[in-house]
Amino acid sequence: MSSVTVRNIPDATHRALKLRAAQHGRSTEAEIRFILEGAVAPKVGLGSALVAIGQSVGGIDMAFARDTYPVEPASFE
User: Which domain holds residue 22?
Assistant: First the structure.
């Protein structure tokens, strides 16, 4: 795992982080990791994002006929 050093954090911010960590039963370091992971994690899955994009443009017609032909197994010879 990587390490990051953050310098010059204001005292008030550091106190707030320590208080927040105590409220959640974590160390200050664990609380900072939790905050950072939440900040960079995707908020919406890819499928949901694609649906939202499609709905924002009024939807699209996906009336394709399904291929019902049987699939031939691969030959490895």
Answer: 11-56
DSSP H or E run through 52: helix 46-56
**Is the pLDDT at 21 greater than 80, yes or no?**
yes
pTM over 0.70: no
Number of Cβ within 10 Å of residue 11's Cβ equals 7
Q: Considering its fold, how many domains does the chain have in total?
A: 1
CATH number (domain holding residue 38): 1.10.1220.10
Tell me the C-alpha distance between 9 and 14, whole Å: 7
Buried b or exposed e, range 48-62, using 16+ CB within 10 angstroms: eeeeeeeeeeeeeee
